[in-house]
Design goal:
The protein has one domain. About 25% of the residues lie in helices and about 30% in strands. The protein is built from three helices and ten strands; from the N terminus they run H-E-E-E-E-H-E-E-E-E-H-E-E. The protein has a five-stranded antiparallel sheet, sandwiched between helices. Strands 8-9-10 form a three-stranded antiparallel sheet, with helices on one face. The longest helix has about 55 residues.
């Protein structure tokens, strides 16, 4: 007599002594779907976090690289500057917007061949290297030279002439411009009150860059010595380094700039600004 093999209630064949397999019940299926949804949501959140972190780190790295290039370029130019008693190698010009002054223009006397046309000064405009925001695109920091402009510069005390002539050079078609970075943070210079200007013009957008120059002994102190109101030993020499006939002068430049992770042509008050600082110094002798 043949023995019947099969599961309970007519199920399919099973191994001896094992119950027949069955599918998931509705509560089990719903629980499985819920768990899978939670896992998918967690994976999506993790993917978004990883992507955001990568973009942030990439933006920070790009800004840091731009800052290294800018500060190295400025430092290299300053350290190769030419200086005289009346011109300490460089000067900083302040752009006036309303009642606010922005020291955002650095002018360095750096002759192409190392030796200027006028050894005792003044420098020629063709021998100057200018670092400033581009007037037409202030989020760019540019280096400007005018090799064909052989005019002599005015005395440093004539600030109005310097401001006028350098402003003209900035927009001149004959000037050579090199973009050092296009990541400068912009701010609305017309915001004299908390309300500010909803649609500031390009002229009102100022780049977050600042140059500070300290000269020791200063031009004023040196002029006082020349006029006899200050003694040679009474001048504020750098670290007191002086002899009977010569003394050490220092022109010390500090550079401060704020960069953002991507170029922006508008005011970026809410952008995460990344500050960078640099310095450079020029040392030379003053003769008694």
């Amino acid at each position: 007599m043949k023995k019947r093999v099969g599961g309970k209630n007519g199920g399919g064949p099973t191994a001896a002594g094992q119950p027949a397999r069955r599918g998931l019940t509705l509560p089990e299926l719903m629980l499985s779907i819920a768990l899978m949804s939670l896992v998918a949501l967690a994976m999506a959140a993790l993917s978004t976090a990883v992507r955001s972190t990568r973009n942030y780190a990439e933006g920070q790295g790009t800004a840091a690289q731009h800052a290294r290039v800018v500060l190295a370029r400025i430092r290299g130019t300053v350290e190769k500057a030419y200086a005289t008693d009346d011109f300490p190698g460089m000067t900083v010009l302040t752009t006036q917007v309303g009642t606010y002054g922005f020291p955002d223009t650095l002018v360095v006397w750096k002759p192409a061949g190392g030796t200027p046309v006028n050894v005792l000064g003044p420098p020629l405009y063709s021998e100057l290297v200018i670092f400033c925001p581009d007037p037409r695109a202030p989020y760019r920091l540019v280096e400007i030279t005018v090799p064909t402009d052989t005019r002599a510069t005015p005395a440093l005390s004539d600030t109005a002439a310097w401001a006028t002539n350098v402003a003209s050079i900035k927009t001149s078609t004959s000037a050579t411009k090199t973009v050092l970075t296009d990541l400068l943070r912009l701010a609305d210079a017309s915001a004299a009150s908390s309300s500010g200007n909803a649609n500031p013009s390009t002229a009102q957008l100022r780049a977050a860059v600042r140059f500070c120059l300290a000269v020791r002994p200063s031009q004023t102190a040196w002029a006082n010595y020349k006029s006899g109101t200050t003694t040679w030993d009474g001048l504020p020499w750098v670290q007191g380094i002086r002899g009977t006939q010569t003394g050490l002068r220092q022109s010390w430049l500090r550079t401060e700039l704020q960069l953002i992770s991507a170029p922006s042509t508008t005011a970026t008050a809410n952008a995460v600004a990344i500050p960078f600082f640099g310095s450079a110094a020029l040392y030379y002798e003053l003769k008694k």
